[in-house]
Specification:
Layout lengths: L38 H11 L17 H29 L3 H11 L3 H23 L1 H5 L6 H29 L1 H21 L5 H33 L9 H37 L8 H29 L5 H7 L6 H21 L2 H4 L5 H29 L6 H22 L5 H7 L1 H14 L8 H12 L18 H5 L8 H24 L16 H10 L24 H9 L1
Helix pairs in contact: 4-8, 4-9, 4-10, 6-7, 6-8, 6-15, 7-8, 7-10, 8-9, 8-14, 8-15, 9-10, 9-14, 12-14, 12-16, 12-17, 14-15
GO molecular function: carbohydrate:proton symporter activity
Main location: membrane
Protein name: Major facilitator superfamily (MFS) profile domain-containing protein
Length: 588
């Protein structure tokens, strides 16, 4: 046991209780101390492996608490984090009133710029179509001079391109890296926008065919944005150390969905720009629209995002840090609502909001009741966004292992677009009443599939999820005992199969220490080959000083002489990717 004098040396803050200096450290009074550990070392391991945003002081996981204590714990963690962030943003505002805007652009706008640009373009297709139909009625309206099939292909060839991109770019992202995939996406979208802007043909039907295939090509780049943006955003939020960061656990979902939010901004700005262009080229007057002015309006509306996409290519190539950190490593919160219930509620709400007017369509579309129909339409859109649309984007990036994350996310997104493709084709052949009979059941099916088969990753340590996948890929799934198989995080199907029975908190704690020791030995052996033996192997960026000294003292084959004087890192600092976390520490 180390004496109090020996432990006074500054090791930084051993979150959440501070350094041991008295011999009666409060942090270790309620935890088990291994016989080969000092109290200070036990406190450090407890803080590393049982962080205070997931475990109470006694080492109990938050999901193992009774419901009352669980609600209290979650409320306390959320309140502490909200207070810390409010203080951070207030200090930022006092130093520079425009700094919060700059922070939003760095953390949300730029990571989601690709989704914002593709949201602008994709939703402009439906907005531009009425204009083309009004200006070219013989082609887009009565189909006298244009093939009706090609005009309808605008709806589904675009989706086919997205499906191809989701699968193709997802595979490329896992094979060549996230950064390459992101640059490739932006380049394809830029070329596709040039094709859309310059689309032409000898006849109007030839122009439509050129326009449709330009949409298909652009869709390939759009499809790649889904897996690449989600995967890169997810992995850049995770620290590089063995132990994950508080930011990963509490704010991982916010980082990914904030990027996805840019798709909505793209839709909004498309509406605004089209209105402005109509005012410029048509003077704001009523139809009819001339062919020339319609051409100017739709082509300029595509040229504007082309400029933004060209900047995106430049930024991703020259300015963006590597987005493949976790992929390279693999190759070499607690929120009571949660992702799963958010998606189930969204699906069920859509089911009800489509079912009600579907079986009384004539009543709700009458003049006196149309406002009720509008309210249900807007609510269904809200629950779709505040549910399946955003959660599927997030969860698909969380549940798959790192080496195939982009590929698997791409396949998942492609299945989603198959639904959109089915609707685009089917809607050409059924009337409005039949659509309302047909659509609601997909919401009910989505809710049931989510309930039965989707694991709940809310508050789950992403590195813990990856740790479980490591055991599974090694054929040792039964040897894993961590929180990734806690019943709270498993689907109903996984619980039915009994996977939660392997959960053992104490055994997992010992297992994690053994895994940390194995990683430490591997790093020391690497440095041993480059330096003068074990004495030259000091703690690196993944090691806290007490962790390094404990493993050095207790691992067979290592010297037990005087410990080297090191400048150790605080326990809580594990290379967080979140600017709020790092800058809050700098202000303290």
């Amino acid at each position: 046991m180390a004496s109090a004098a020996d432990s006074i040396r500054d090791y930084g803050v051993a979150a959440p209780h501070g350094p041991y200096t008295t011999g009666e450290h409060q942090a270790t009074q309620d935890i088990d101390i291994r016989k080969d550990m000092s109290e200070n070392e036990a406190s450090v391991f407890h803080a590393l492996l049982h962080p205070d945003d997931l475990y109470i002081a006694e080492g109990t996981y938050w999901a193992d608490l009774p419901i009352g204590q669980r609600v209290k714990f979650v409320g306390q963690v959320d309140a502490q984090e909200a207070k810390a962030e409010a203080s951070y943003f207030w200090n930022m505002f006092k130093n520079d009133p425009l700094a919060p805007i700059g922070h939003y652009f760095r953390t949300c706008v730029i990571p989601g710029a690709g989704l914002g640009l593709e949201g602008y373009v994709l939703f402009s297709i439906g907005n531009v179509r009425p204009l083309l139909k009004a200006a070219f009625p013989d082609c887009w309206g009565t189909h006298e001079i244009c093939d009706k099939t090609w005009t309808q292909a605008v709806d589904y060839l675009e989706i086919c391109g997205i499906i191809v991109g989701q699968i193709l770019v997802g595979v490329v992202g896992d094979w060549l890296g996230r950064r390459f995939g992101l640059i490739q996406d932006a380049t394809i979208m830029f070329v596709g926008l040039l094709m859309l802007t310059a689309a032409w043909g000898v006849t109007q039907n030839g122009w439509v065919i050129c326009y449709v295939w330009a949409l298909f090509f652009y869709g390939i780049g759009v499809g790649g944005e889904y897996p690449m943006t989600a995967t890169a955003g997810m992995e850049n939020a995770v620290g590089s150390g063995k132990v994950s960061t508080r930011d990963d656990r509490l704010h991982r979902g916010r980082k990914v969905t904030s990027a996805f939010l840019m798709q909505g901004w793209g839709q909004f700005f498309n509406q605004v720009i089209l209105i402005i262009l109509l005012l410029i080229f048509h003077g704001g007057s009523s139809p009819p629209y001339s062919k020339t002015l319609a051409q100017w309006t739709y082509r300029v509306s595509f040229a504007i995002p082309a400029v933004g996409t060209l900047w995106l290519v430049y930024f991703r190539y020259y300015k963006m840090k590597s987005a493949s950190k976790q992929l390279m490593l693999s190759k070499k919160k607690s929120n009571l609502y949660g992702r799963k219930w958010m998606m189930i509620v969204g699906f069920l709400a859509d089911f009800v909001l489509f079912m009600v007017p579907g079986f009384a369509l004539e009543y709700f579309t009458s003049i006196e009741n149309i406002h009720g129909f509008q309210a249900m339409y807007f609510l269904s859109s809200f629950f779709n966004q505040f549910g399946p649309n955003s959660v599927t984007f997030l969860v698909a990036a969380e549940v798959f292992p790192t080496p195939v994350r982009a590929t698997a996310h791409g396949f998942s997104a492609a299945w989603g677009k198959l639904g959109a493709l089915l609707a685009a084709i089917l809607y050409n052949y059924i009337d409005i009443q039949t659509k309302f009979y047909f659509v609601p059941w997909f919401g009910l099916a989505g809710a049931l599939l989510t309930l039965l088969f989707l694991p709940d990753t809310t508050g789950l340590d992403l590195k813990e999820q990856e740790r479980r996948w490591t055991y599974i890929r090694a054929g040792r799934e039964h040897e894993y005992h961590g929180i990734a198989i806690h019943w709270k995080h498993l689907s109903w199907w996984e619980r039915f199969r009994g996977q939660h029975k392997g959960y053992d908190a104490k055994l997992d704690y010992e297992q994690k220490i053994d895994e940390m020791r194995a990683d430490w030995v591997e790093r020391q052996q690497h440095k041993f080959s480059e330096k003068n033996g074990w004495e030259g192997a000091e703690a690196d960026e993944d090691d806290h000083a007490d962790v390094h000294n404990y493993f050095k003292r207790t691992t067979p084959g290592t010297p037990t002489g005087p410990e080297p004087m090191m400048a150790p890192k605080a326990v809580s600092e594990n290379s967080s990717g979140d600017e709020i976390t790092s800058e809050k520490r700098a202000q303290q």
